[in-house]
């Protein structure tokens, strides 16, 4: 038996650490895609022809009709181009799989140092108890503690967060051995302990650790309520004295505290095993220095960690994203340490998944199609985006190193892992690296580290890494690797998208425009893939046009589409049917429900007409120097009423910025009024026996669909009584606006 095991091990020794599979049904998809393209071309031909002749099959459509046709033609040309980008991320999907046992067979004794960066920025909307749950989950990775270091960057510079981390450093002594002994998952205490204990667990130990956790939670909550740290606590750690000289969150010196020094022989858990390094950092902030938000925080961490642990692999997570699978580091290493392909991989990205998604995902937070289809597609053509969280990087590529075939980058575990010197020496030395002035006249934020001046610093950084010749890998295993918190109100969901869309538009308008910057550096398919997100904002105008022109033309009986008996009708109907059927199938296969798909369609419409429109306006204002960039941090905390509504999948309009609801409601009402007006005309026509004279069928169908998808909006406007309804002032404004638009257009040119 022994020998057969040995020979099996020998065989395993030569096998790769990961595999890549192509998706099934690729050919079928490509054929479908080509058929769609043919129909799109036919539609463009139809449009161009009739614009020239001025005749549609209902007769002449007149000068105002021609203008609408030209507008529609322009939109359709744009949608065609955009459609091509969306094909680039569907053409070549790949699936990745890792072989952890091979990794441990070959490298268990030679595992590299891994530094985990957790970012937080505000103790009120990112509660410290949540932050330390994330920290504890990554401290409990199934990975040798002497190779693991955890850094918390606190841009809130908060004593409360520091205190919570100090508590976590004590609790870790119980938590880590508990996790390892019973192999519990997930290793965020709050998530783990809220489940009932499994049979394998010793119930006594379970309740003991639960009591310990609850006590800690209570102490932290008390401090939160007080808004400061009780004196007797303060006496327990020298770190608190730093806050004596902190004047505000925006104005303070660097605070750096090594809470667990893993080199210290006394830094052990209750079983006597080593603990991972744990470091708190609040980088220096001064009002006259721009701090560059999360990118600035990560760059400070890169430098500070290089002084302390210098792990070759860096994992970045947002403070709400706890590790849901303690094997994730090992999975990521299967890529970096693969003998054949590992040397060209710069980062391994996990999907961003959330623990608070409701069954029908009312705000379409899960982005399941992006994560189950589009990123796999990008992986097939060079690598997924870096999305900021749940991503493993090589330190050196993050620092700006170029890929070179002749000088392959291998994980070298012989490099010294932990620096020498006393804690105080280390702290002092590293502090200087996190000062406001350190980056002056350096390449930091540009050629080194995370890039600045972009609202999606992560996406831009990932792009530039790939343009330096590297590949990236997308890993979406059965068990989610990380779980975060998604926005729980409409307003937050739309504002988050506004920030993302703004960032992508910035990329589009900068020298990093993927077609220029990526030319000859990354594949054309990947360039197009980036464009499918970079062009989000540009979709707002054609979408708004498409939501205005057909209904208003319906009101005026101007035909925009062919009638059913016309052969040109066929490409239209083929496209409409297959588009929706395909999108539904894709959504269901990505794990969504039918209702969630319907909600997803609504949210994309909302995003396009509000988030993207305002993002475009703001970007223009910033480019022309009228406004400054900001970073609206998404709240990870909601009050009970809001949570209740969220859990019932009811849209919360009440707290949404009025401009968002006004636009949404006005467009919804215009479609409603036009549908009513249009149907009235049809009825009159039927009575006069001439129903088929005007080919308005498709316009009526489109209007009805828009009305249907907006049902929750009408409800919020007129029927709801709760706090989440649309405020009366917005209702009045949008009714007046919508009515005026309808009345003006139908009285003009008649
Ligand atoms: O000045 C700042 C602002 C934010 N953050 C942190 O950045 C993270 C992301 O912020 P969040 O408000 O949660 O934004 P999201 O839209 O949820 O973040 C997504 O989009 C961002 C880019 O816009 C990426 O950086 C994130 O990783 C990605 O999860 C959080 O941990 C924050 O604490 C800072 O450290 N400093
Ligand atoms: Mn977030």
Automatic annotation (TrEMBL):
GO biological process, one term: cell wall organization
Localization terms from the record: Endomembrane system
Active site: 155, 458
Positions that bind UDP-alpha-D-glucose: 126, 155
SUPFAM superfamilies: Nucleotide-diphospho-sugar transferases (SSF53448)
GO cellular component terms listed in the entry, alphabetical order: endomembrane system; membrane
Family: Belongs to the glycosyltransferase 2 family. Plant cellulose synthase-like E subfamily.
Name of the protein this chain belongs to: Cellulose synthase-like protein E6
Protein's organism: Papaver atlanticum
């Amino acid at each position: 038996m022994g020998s057969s095991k040995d020979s099996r091990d020998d065989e395993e020794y030569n096998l790769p650490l990961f595999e890549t599979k192509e998706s099934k049904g690729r050919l079928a998809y490509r054929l479908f895609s080509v058929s769609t393209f043919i129909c799109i071309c036919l539609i463009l031909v139809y449009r161009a022809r009739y614009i020239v002749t001025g005749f549609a099959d209902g007769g002449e459509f007149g000068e105002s009709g021609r203008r609408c046709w030209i507008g529609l033609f322009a939109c359709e040309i744009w949608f065609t181009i955009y459609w091509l980008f969306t094909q680039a991320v569907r053409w070549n999907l790949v699936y990745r799989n890792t072989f952890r046992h091979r990794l441990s067979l070959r490298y268990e004794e030679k595992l590299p140092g891994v530094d985990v960066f957790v970012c937080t920025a505000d103790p009120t909307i990112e509660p410290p108890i949540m932050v330390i749950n994330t920290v504890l989950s990554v401290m409990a990775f199934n990975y040798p503690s002497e190779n693991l270091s955890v850094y918390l960057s606190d841009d809130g510079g908060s004593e409360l967060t520091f205190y919570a981390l100090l508590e976590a450093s004590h609790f870790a002594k119980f938590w880590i051995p508990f996790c390892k002994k019973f192999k519990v998952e997930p290793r965020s205490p709050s998530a783990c302990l809220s489940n009932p204990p499994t049979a394998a667990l010793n119930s006594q130990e379970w309740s003991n650790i639960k009591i310990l956790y609850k006590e800690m939670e209570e102490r932290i909550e008390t401090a939160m309520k007080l808004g400061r740290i009780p004196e007797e606590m303060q006496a327990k750690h020298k770190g608190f004295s730093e806050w004596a000289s902190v004047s505000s969150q925006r104005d303070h010196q660097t605070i750096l505290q090594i809470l667990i020094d893993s080199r210290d022989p006394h830094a052990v858990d209750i079983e006597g095993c080593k603990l991972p390094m744990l470091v708190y950092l609040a980088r220096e902030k001064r009002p006259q220095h721009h701090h560059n938000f999360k990118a600035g925080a990560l760059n400070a961490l890169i430098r500070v960690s290089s002084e302390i642990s210098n792990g070759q692999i860096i994992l970045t997570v947002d403070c709400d994203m706890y590790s849901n699978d303690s094997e994730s580091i090992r999975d990521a290493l299967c890529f970096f340490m693969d003998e054949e392909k590992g040397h060209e991989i710069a980062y391994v990205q996990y999907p961003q998944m959330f623990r608070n998604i409701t069954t029908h995902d009312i705000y379409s937070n899960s982005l399941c199609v992006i994560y189950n289809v589009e990123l796999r597609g990008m992986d097939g053509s060079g690598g997924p985006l870096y999305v900021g969280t749940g991503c493993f990087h090589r330190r050196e590529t993050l620092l700006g190193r170029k890929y070179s075939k002749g000088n392959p980058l291998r994980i070298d575990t012989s490099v010294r892992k932990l620096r020498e010197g006393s804690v105080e020496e280390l702290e002092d030395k590293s502090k200087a690296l996190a000062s406001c002035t350190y980056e002056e006249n350096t390449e930091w934020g540009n050629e080194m580290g995370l890039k600045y001046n972009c609202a999606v610093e992560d996406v831009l950084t990932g792009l530039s890494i790939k343009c330096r010749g590297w590949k990236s890998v997308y890993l979406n295993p059965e068990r989610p690797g990380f779980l975060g918190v998604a926005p729980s109100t409409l307003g937050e969901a739309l504002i988050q998208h506004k920030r993302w869309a703004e960032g992508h538009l910035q990329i589009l308008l900068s020298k990093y425009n993927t077609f220029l910057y990526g030319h000859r550096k990354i594949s054309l398919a990947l360039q197009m893939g980036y464009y499918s997100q970079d062009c989000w904002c540009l979709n707002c105008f054609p979408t708004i046009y498409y939501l205005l022109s057909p209904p208003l033309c319906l009101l005026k009986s101007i035909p925009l589409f062919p009638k059913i008996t016309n052969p040109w009708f066929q490409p239209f109907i083929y496209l409409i049917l297959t588009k929706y059927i395909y999108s539904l199938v894709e959504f269901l296969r990505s794990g969504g429900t039918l209702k969630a798909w319907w909600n997803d369609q609504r949210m994309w419409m909302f995003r396009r007409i509000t988030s993207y429109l305002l993002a475009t306006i703001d970007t223009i204002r910033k480019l022309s120097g009228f406004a400054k960039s900001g970073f609206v941090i998404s709240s990870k905390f909601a009050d009970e009423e809001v949570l209740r509504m969220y859990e019932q999948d009811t849209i919360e309009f009440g707290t949404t910025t009025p401009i968002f609801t006004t636009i949404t409601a006005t467009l919804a009402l215009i479609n409603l009024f036009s549908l009513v007006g249009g149907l009235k005309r049809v009825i009159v026509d039927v009575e006069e026996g001439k129903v088929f004279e005007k080919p308005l069928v498709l316009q009526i169908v489109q209007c009805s669909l828009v009305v249907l998808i907006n049902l929750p909006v009408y409800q919020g406007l007129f029927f709801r009584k709760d706090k989440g309804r649309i405020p009366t002032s917005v209702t009045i404004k949008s009714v007046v606006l919508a009515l005026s638009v309808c009345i003006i257009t139908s009285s003009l040119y008649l």
